[in-house]
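Q: Joint fold for the lines below.
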Amino acid sequence: MSRKGGAGKTTVAVNLTLAARAMGVRAVLADADPMRSACEVLRGREGSETLLFETSAAKLFALTQAAQRAGADLLIIDTPAAPEVDVAEAVKVADLCLAIARPTYIDLAAAVLSVAVIQRLGREGLIVLNQCAPQRNGVEPPQVLKALEALRFASLPVAAVTLRSRIVYQTAAAQARSVLEMENGGAAAREVRDLFSHVWRSLNGEATAPMRTANDDLRRAGLDLKLVPTA
Ligand SMILES: Nc1ncnc2c1ncn2[C@@H]1O[C@H](COP(=O)(O)OP(=O)(O)OP(=O)(O)O)[C@@H](O)[C@H]1O
Ligand SMILES: [Mg+2]
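A: Joint structure:
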């Protein structure tokens, strides 16, 4: 979810679904965006009729039941940027909500709104930073550090995995494929696999590597700030 258009909801939803399947998890994708962007991306892909379901907010609960009955392990829902009432229906049926945000002031402000919805509905959530500039020599670019600093005020954890701005996300979408299918050994494939593993372990209540908090990054960057816990 993200109330900002273009944050990467569809890109993350499609890639997580395909990564899950590549890793042996029976995952299906619900396109709950009237724009049908996920359908647009996966149109023409072989087997898409068992992978992708067009739906609406009102039908989400029934879809989760049907997916369970059909033996799906995981249902991923791609939501529209608005209206909030529709997105809330997705939050209500979700075991874990991913708030997707670019490391920009406007996206982070939108992520704070998503956090508020997730908390109001008593659900679990994780902020996933997307379209971040790559690290240089293991050092986060200032924009990412600033985003993490801003997020320390949010009470949701930040995903341990940050997705970078990489052209392969766009070329993969144009070919109805995942970044794993484009460059299995590439950096984008690695980050999507890592994000999926992180999400899957969280969903299954397994101990995960400690979720990355803004605090960790700031400490690594040598910034000596008094920080509030994000978990
Ligand atoms: N990590 C990334 N690296 C490069 N390009 C990306 C990345 N994530 C998303 N994009 C590109 O950004 C654009 C917007 O992404 P996407 O459609 O997934 O966003 P969205 O949040 O679903 O948008 P909408 O609100 O319109 O549904 C697309 O062209 C997509 O290919
Ligand atoms: Mg979308």
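Q: Anything notable?
A: Confidence is low (pLDDT under 50) at residues 209-213, 221-231. DSSP finds ten helices and five strands in the chain.
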